[in-house]
Amino acid sequence: METRSTAFSSATRSFSSSSLKERLTQLSNLTTTPLRPIPKIRTSIEFAPSKIPKRRRLQTLAVATWSTSIVIATFLFFFLASYPPVWPFLAIYLLWIHLDSSPEHGGRTSPTFRSFVFWKYFAEYYPASFLKTCDLPPDRPYVFGYHPHGIIGMGAICTFATEALGFSKAFPGITPHLLTLASNFRVPFYRDMILAMGICSVSKQSCSNILKGGPGQSITIVVGGAAESLSAHPGTADLTLRKRLGFIKVAIQHGADLVPVFSFGENDIYDQMPNDKGTTLYKVQKKFQQVFGFTLPLFHGRGLLNYNLGLLPYRRRIVAVIGRPIPVEKCAQPTLEEIRRVQEQYIDELMWIWNTYKDEFARSRRRELSIVE
C-alpha cells in the first residue's frame, strides 16, 4: 500500500508540474501579443513632426495663448488670492471692476498693445487677411457688420481688435471698436487686455456712446450672435440676419454708414458636431441659450502637438472682405419700414461680396450663402 501511495503521489506531482509549465507558456504567449486598440489609437491621431520652423511654433503658441486667455486670467487671479498679503490689492481691483465704466464708454485703447508682435504671429497662423474694396472717408462714423459669426470670430479679432493686418493704415482716421458681451468685462485681468485692444461692450448704450464720439468713430458687431454659431460648419455660410434690426437702427439714429463685412473661411477653422434643427443636441443648445443668453457649440479642432484632436483652430485661411458703405440719413426715431429698407440694401451689398469673391476664397464650399433667419 505504501508503494502505491508513493507512486500515486509522485505521478500527481509530475502531472502538476507539467500542467503548470504549459499554462505559464500560454500566459507568456498572451502577454507578448500586442494589443490591437493601441495601434488604432495611434493611427487616428496625426501628430505634428518634431522638426517645425520656429516661426510656425510661435504662431501656434500665440493662438493657444489667446484661446486659453480667460482660463489663464482666472487661474492667475485665484493664484494671487491664495496669498493673504495681496488681498487688499485684489479687493481694490475688484471694486475698480465694479465701478469702471470704460466698457460702455469706448474702452481704453492702447495702440502699442494692438501693435504687439504677438498679434502678428496670431494672424499669420491661419493666415488671416482682409480685402479692402473701397476707401472709407473719416468724416463720418461707421457701423461694421461682421459675418459669419463662426465659433469664436477669430477673423474679427485679427482685423478690428489688433493692428496685425494694418487696419489703421488701410483706413486712416477711423478708430475701430470690436464689440462683445458685457460678461467678458467681469473676468479679472482678461477685461483689461481686451479693453487695451479697443474692445467694448455690445450694449445699446455702449454703441451710442462710441458713435457720439463723432467722425471716424466706428463699431464692429458680429451680427449673428450665439444663434449663428450653432450653424458654423465648414463649407457653409448660413446667416442669422433677417431678425437682426438693432444694429441697423443704431446706425440710422447716429447717421453712421453701414459697412458689411464677409469673412471667408471663418466657419472652416473648427469642426462642429452635427446639430441640425430637430435633433436633440440642437434643442438642448437652444434651451441653454434661452436660459443663459449664450450657447455652447460642441466643436473641436487641433492640438498643440497634433493636427486633428484638440480645441485649437485649424490652420485655414481667413479673408475678411470689407464691403462698400451704405449711406444712411440720420433719424432719431426711424420707422420699421425705413429700417427694413436699409436692411435690404445691406443684404444686397453682402450678397454682392459673396457672389464676387466666392470662387476665389470659398472654392471648397458645400453650398451657397443663405439667410436662415
Strand order of the largest sheet: 1-10-7-2-5
User: How many strands in all?
Assistant: 11
Q: What is the count of DSSP helices, taking H or I runs of 4+ residues?
A: 15
In which range does the helix fraction lie?
A: 40-55%
N-C termini distance: 99 Å
- Poorly predicted ranges: 1-15, 30-42
Please state roughly what percent of the residues sit in beta strands, choosing from under 5%, 5-15%, 15-25%, 25-35%, 35-45% or over 45%.
5-15%
**Outline, from the CA principal axes?**
globular
In round numbers, the mean pLDDT is 89
Task: Please outline the major beta sheet.
Answer: 5 strands, mixed
Radius of gyration, CA atoms, in whole angstroms: 29 Å
The structure class reads alpha/beta
What's the helix-strand series? HHHHHHHEEHHEHEHEHEHEEHEEHE
What would your notes on this structure say?
Helices cover 46% and strands 11% of the residues. With 373 residues, it is of the alpha/beta class. The strands form four sheets. A five-stranded mixed beta sheet has the order 1-10-7-2-5, with helices on both faces. α3 packs across α7. Mean pLDDT is 89; it is low at 1-15 and 30-42.
